[in-house]
Amino acid sequence: MIKVAVAGCAGRMGTAVVDAVGKAEDMEVVCGIDPHGADLDASQPVFANVSEALEGAAFDVLVDFTQPNVVADNLRAALPAGVDCVVGTTGLSNQVLEELAASAAPGTCLFYAPNFTTGAVLMMEFAKAAAPYFPEAEVIEFHHCNKKDAPSGTAVRTAQIIAQARGGRASEAPGRETEMEGMEGARGALVEGVPVHAVRSMGYVASQEVMFGSLGQTLTIRHDSWDRTSYMPGVLLGIRSVGAREGLIVGLENFMS
Ligand code: NAD
Q1: What are the binding positions for (S)-2,3,4,5-tetrahydrodipicolinate in this chain (predicted)?
Q2: 4, 161, 169, 250: which one has the fewest Cβ atoms less than 10 Å from its Cβ?
Q3: Whole-structure pTM value
Q4: What tens digit of pLDDT does each residue of 102-154 get?
Q5: Which of 179, 187, 203, 190 is nearest to 155 (CA)?
């Protein structure tokens, strides 16, 4: 049995993780961690922070779906204690991830996936395959209006993958010079030369389009996540996989075969 602690257990994603882990036969939730978890009707203890959880419970894996401004501190407590971490909270830079992984006890894994849905991972793979053949690409992501970071981690990762697959050829991001004064940003944020647009609206969970353009043709790849259960197979795969791995691993594709 893999013993799991869930940070952010009172949140939208954390609630779904507690439910999914509880239903899996090879793992169990030993505790939740959330400063707003005191009122939860939970069947396991809920601690206010990771340090208290490490003192009060024994667990193999910490799953973190919290907030961009707290996730680094959570990992700073768990990794040196030898707890493998499965992280979905977005907003961590590569540099911070590397620093955190370096602080881990030997044999410990820090696994971060900007997107835990298999469909989004495939969308990024397809984008990687298309990028060398299309001079232009734009990423448009759509999320619910409570999302705390823009653009999304998936959009940033997609733009980075496209930039790498172009083999160093920079996009001209046509039209940026035409942005009206006082309306800068109309052509999106440039992430490694790829325009990225973030839409926030009620009605969405998480969707993304990658639009490629070439002479006389466009190619659009779209992924929609309609429900938070879409992330759970990926989260469970991460929990099952980290025990045999060490160091920093970024992206669910590393565990999909
Ligand atoms: P949410 O606001 O519903 O939940 C966050 C929870 O974290 C809250 O209950 C809050 O009280 C708790 N929290 C705050 N500080 C904490 C701390 N120090 N320790 C433990 N818990 C703490 O947010 P959400 O919609 O569940 O999203 C959580 C994160 O997951 C966001 O960063 C979001 O972008 C990310 N996310 C990632 C994926 C992915 O596939 N990687 C998918 C969806 C969401």
Answers
A1: 144, 153-154
A2: 169
A3: 0.85
A4: 999 999 999 999 889 999 999 999 999 999 999 999 999 999 999 988 999 89
A5: 190
Residue to mutate (ligand 1; options 62, 66, 207; most atoms within 8 A of CB): 66
Partner residues linked to 28 by β-bridges: 3
Please pick, among 3, 128, 147, 223, the residue that the annotation labels catalytic: 147
Q: What is the mean pLDDT of residues 187-192?
A: 94
Taking the centre of ligand 1 as the mean of its atom positions, its distance from the CA of residue 236, in whole angstroms, is 17
**From CA 52, how far away is CA 63, in angstroms rounded?**
16
Ligand 1 within 6 A of 13 CB? yes
pLDDT digits (tens, 9 = 90+) for 69-84: 999 999 999 999 999 9
User: What domains appear along the chain, each with residue ranges and CATH number?
Assistant: 2-112+229-255 (3.40.50.720), 118-226 (3.30.360.10)
pLDDT for residue 153: 87
The per-residue pLDDT for 41 is 74
Q: Rounded to the nearest whole angstrom, what is the distance from the C-alpha of residue 12 to the centroid of ligand 1?
A: 7
pLDDT class of 57 with cuts at 50, 70, 90: very high
Rounded distance from Cα 173 to ligand 1 centre (Å): 33
From 143, 148, 197, 223, active-site residue: 143
Q: Is the distance from the beta carbon of residue 112 to the nearest atom of ligand 1 less than 6 Å?
A: no
> Other C-beta atoms within 10 Å of 145: how many?
10
Q: Which of 118, 137, 126, 77 is nearest to 253 (CA)?
A: 118
Give the full edge-to-edge strand order of the sheet including 247-250: 46-47, 27-33, 2-7, 61-64, 84-87, 109-112, 247-250
Predicted confidence band of residue 184 (pLDDT cuts 50, 70, 90): very high
23 is catalytic: no
